[in-house]
Write a structure and sequence with these properties.
An eight-stranded parallel beta sheet has the order 7-6-5-4-3-2-1-8. It is built from nine helices and eight strands. The chain starts with a helix and ends in a 7-residue tail after the last helix.
Length: 236
Amino acid sequence: MSATPERVAELQERLAAVHARIDAACAATGRPRDEVRLVVVTKYFPRSDLDALVGLGVRDVAESRAQEATAKLAEGDGPPPGVRTHFVGQIQSNKAGEIARLADVVHSLDRAKVVRALARGAQAAGREVTGLVQVDLEGSDAGRGGAQPQDVPALADLVVESGLHLGGVMAVAPRGADPAPAFARLAELAAQVRAEHPGAVMISAGMSGDLEQAVAHGATHLRVGSAILGDRQSHR
């Protein structure tokens, strides 16, 4: 089933507005626009929206729940051609194999057990999977995941040793606080990881409400959902 013309027009307008925000953020900080990629998070929205976004030029899409991602991608006989699939949610080790079969990039590696399980899944599927170490920048909200900052270098080493491709680091800004200090801290950690692993250049940070601050602090990948797709609650 395809998205209605009205829905496609809505997505096109919202997508253009987000691109304009990214353009302005890059211009304000003197960063080349091609340093920043938009990853559209399609969680809770149907395959028809994903296909419409691809038709509008989106090439990076993300999910955060393994079961939903598997069902949505299977509905269309796999990811659309030329599209890079990302997984941005918390990972249960027993779902890691499933995630390894569908995701090109996994943003939420925060424990050794998960790294090893994802690596086994990637090997079994014969796929090269890129992993990012998720950093806990608030230290109290365990529900959002993330490794403690002091544990990030060792976890990054393990990602490489396990056979996954180390992409870099990821974080979610603390709730109810200025995101800038958190993103600045993430940039410092990213530099530490790059010092040991020069290819780990990805910094996944910034969502609908704080993408400008993320761009200002070096984010290379922005995870944007509601600003493009609308309120998820009505689609649950």
